[in-house]
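Side project, low priority. Logging it here so it doesn't get lost.
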Amino acid sequence: MRIPLRPVVLTGASGALGRELSRRLGEAGWPLVLTDIVPFPDRLPAGARFISADLNDGGAVVQLCAGAGTIIHFGGVSTERPFEDILGPNIRGLYHIYEAARCARARVVFASSNHVVGFHERTTPLDADCAYRPDGYYGLSKAFGELLARLYFDKHGVESVILRIGSCFPQPRDARMLATWLSYADLTRLVMCAALAERVGFATVWGASANARTFWRRDDRAVIGWQPQDSADPFIPVLENRVSDNPVAERYQGGAFCAIDYTRDRG
């Protein structure tokens, strides 16, 4: 796979997935500009730079991304939190990312989430153009991000690949992840394809490995030429009965996120 000619900015580089991508893309020789609000905890990949920046600081984000060809956006709050905690990095911060992409004429690879559709029931297979049903403030912020990406493509021509990431861990942990798991290797290949595809326009891809028990069907992966190579299926005998005792979490695709602060009559 070829190497991008222009710098690639990776936000959220100090997080779990950011660190994996930093290492793997660095090993592939990508020209990386890594950024996070906290220090990078690992040795920098060869040729990479780390620049500390707060997504709330629009000027700093625009300056950081100047000259970039791709912004791989994994920054911001990555779990369910109170709305005020989400507001700055995930909403205002994403606006700054898209303003920076517009100024730099860069493509955005946006780490969205399955939690934009978390309140769909598990028995309902979804295509990428399904209705938004976020399962919390985190999922709501990602739905906002997807709509912002759509706006910036329609109004400014900023290309985006939306990655609706499922559960990205070294291996699946429970029965739900038999449907949602995304391996680190498949994530890396997905990001590479999203960044390197010739034309993407506005594309949405389910970020899951080739799992037989998937909740998700059609998307735009053909646009970027990506197919997952790993699968959660070998873990079925060990994990298929590993479920919670919460009926809300087990009913909906978003799992435990749906059950947080859930006050609706469960009957």
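Brief comment: The chain has a mean pLDDT of 97.
Revisit when time allows.
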